[in-house]
Amino acid sequence: MTEQMAWDRNVLLVDHRLPVARPGWQLEEADPAGVRAHRQLRQQAFVEDQGLFAGSDLDDADDDAATVVLVARGVAGEVLGGVRLAPVGVDVGWWTGSRLVVAPGSPPGIGPALVAAACARAEQAGALRFDAVVQDRYAAMFTRLGWAATGAADIAGRPHTAMTWPIGRLAALAQATKSPLGGLLAGLHLGGPGFVGDDGAPVPGTDVVAACDAILPSMVERDPGWAGWCGVLVNVNDLSAMGAAPLGLLDSIGARDASFAARVVAGLRAGSQAWGVPVLGGHTQLGVPAALSVTALGRTDRPVPASGGRPGQHVRLTADLGGDWRPGATGRQWDSTTGRTTAELQLMGSVVARTAPAAAKDVSMAGLVGTLGMLAEASGCGAVLDVAAVPRPTSATVGDWFTCFPGSAFLTTDGADRSFAPAGPASTATCGELVPGSGVRLRWPDGSTTPALAGPVTGLGASRTPEENP
Q1: Residue of 190, 467, 204, 398 lying closest to 306 (CA atoms)
Q2: How many Å apart are CA 183 and CA 180, to the nearest integer?
Q3: Taking the model in full, what pTM does it have?
Q4: What is the pLDDT of residues 6-50, one digit of tens each?
Q5: Cα separation of 200 and 319, whole Å?
Q6: Which terminus of the chain is more solvent-facing, meaning fewer CB atoms within 10 Å of its CB: N or C?
């Protein structure tokens, strides 16, 4: 075989001397001129050509400052197509897409690209539900792009299909953080009867509750002082969720050198002083990759389990909405605690003990919905969460708030007639209920529900006391 023949048969050969072929258009968020051009295309297509609207297709969404228009521009800057997306009413994470239009004679692929871009933009805005009503002739294209039909609709006597884009952000977080636990921990008697899968574990024969949390090594490396603070925060939260008063902490630190370890210790010291919980001892190893784990001990003679929920009980969220995103962790870590006094932190931390609900769990790395799913799983039931009723900081989108680590936040369940103790600067609201079945569904302002978690989160199953076991 000649050398030329060998090259000809190399199907992986790419001539990098040739410029990469680019489509004759690009997508962007529209400026005012782009919005006007999009409206002109809409007028021509939906009013003059198709007769779907009389006179004009403009509506309230066009006057909403939150509405986003995406357009496709040709090489000369002309608008070849566009699509509009906007929140439904007050933004509660429910967005709709509409007015998808492409100019006649435009290059192929613009329509599907605009739809895909609208989905990405809605998720960027924190949407957990994204709907559209499309003409039946375009339903197949949306289906190919991953949309699901939810029903039939009629606009101006023309058949349309109601469709939704499946946003899997909540399920993906639960899958990544908690789903392996059932298999990994099989055979271990975690927490004892009635407390399997809880945030802490009652020590048999005592009134002591023990908890342990490790901080992600990447977080320790990136922000060692904050990691030390969070080592205290997450463990105190675990004890507080069970109604236990914290007694002390033990830490285990890995660091490349003493200087780095000192930054972690500084965060631990600050957290210890803020909550008034002493660091009793621990272990420090130098010359190793960054690592931090903290163990906490607390005391209560009436630990509150995550498994005490039952269908019909109301779900409440108590959360501190003060503060802001931790620098460098926007959308992932909410910092309300560094601005609070010791009295405020202790008041919020004792709210479960003072309320004594049927079930409780602190919102942690699985996010609000994942944590509710774990509580429901331990209780042997499912849950429905009212999206619009969830207390939320104004600077956080619904998608971010439902998936972030919120600093100080507790989910509790109980009967509707049970009162709730004051939580100082934290906000408390009833925002759902436990229901028969499994998983978590989101309830929207129109009364409809959408699936968030299809089934159990951890695979650990329901946690029962010996009296409850068959």
Answers
A1: 190
A2: 6
A3: 0.90
A4: 444 444 444 445 555 566 899 999 999 999 999 999 999 999 999
A5: 20
A6: C
